[in-house]
Design brief:
Radius of gyration: 21 Å
Largest sheet: 2 strands, antiparallel
Order of helices and strands: HHHHHHHHHHHHEHHHEHHH
Distance between the termini: 27 Å
Strand content: under 5%
Number of helices: 18
Length: 387
Amino acid sequence: MLDLRPPAALTVRRRIPRDVAVFTAYQFALIAIVLVVAARHGVGIHGLSYRFRQWDASWLLSIAHHGYQPDGPRGPAIAFFPLYPATVRAVMFFVPKDVVAAFLVTAVASVVGHTAFYRALRSRPELADGAASVLVLLLLWPTTLYFSLLYTEGFYLALTGGFLWFLFADRIGPAAALAALAALTRQPGFLCAVPLAVWVASDVRLPWSRRARRLGWLALPAAGYAVFLVINRVVYGSWFAFVHELRTHWYKRTAPLTETIPTAVRFLRDPDWYFGWTNIADHALVLVALAVFVAWPIACRRRFDRCRWALLAWGAVQWMFIASSASSKTGVGWISSTRYLMLVLPLFVAIVDLVRNRRWIVCSLGAIGALFALMVVERWMNRHWTA
């Protein structure tokens, strides 16, 4: 299970907190794995730099360098939210090399995010026993590599993990502020408003008048999303320019679940192997996640408390956001869903609850995830679609 004792190499005169040491070591381990796989494939520093810039990273680095450009080949960059590239740009004042600056932002944020999520769970007696198991599943998810790539995953985890930490401490103001920043980092970030609302509304210690006033903090996540819409309007002349780019450049659109779920089932019955096993995993895991969220409150109804209701609400709306993705191209609607599900933190809590925190099951699931994670590193190194 997750050993939170600091490795000897990370023990200093002023002792590093155990959880911080473990998650820092995890980041070093991810990079070490990438370097070993790179050496095995004969990929040097320049080749690695190229791979770190591919896919979404190229768009994010473009925004960091040039901002949003409504005309020309970089126009579709508006599909990516601004906070991560803006942070990378700020770090580039001190570390001019863009790849290095972006990696520093990702790595530091990832350590902060894992630590904050772990401490959020540990802070609640209802969830503390399963906290280590939850983090094992998160650390060994098949797309865990993305916590070290120049993507928004690590940065977003820091914001949502911090959001949950403050929420469970009943510090609504800081939680709402981090929700607003999450809304400026990834599109599902504004959905942090849902667990925030559930948490505040279910606080039976307070009268409804006080709860109603506290619900006013929901304006902050909405404001974060509104800032991005204003950027769309000012730079591109349309409030929802990013939606247009998602449709035309990435063939992504929103559709009702009554359309997307049957489409996914048909795809799994007769899959198109163009993207390989990762595309099958994308579709299968979204359906598995649905089963997990449906079973969770039923199987664990006797111990379903305020924390779990807030987490279930958060997980449900995030799942619906992912599952409502559709495309005119067969099999493209749920592409990358394995990576998106990695950021649905309640999913891991639900799995641990359903298996009653049995360590052998958690370790078995983690081992399976780790195996697929190594395969994803191989695909990423070979510049194939990775999930």
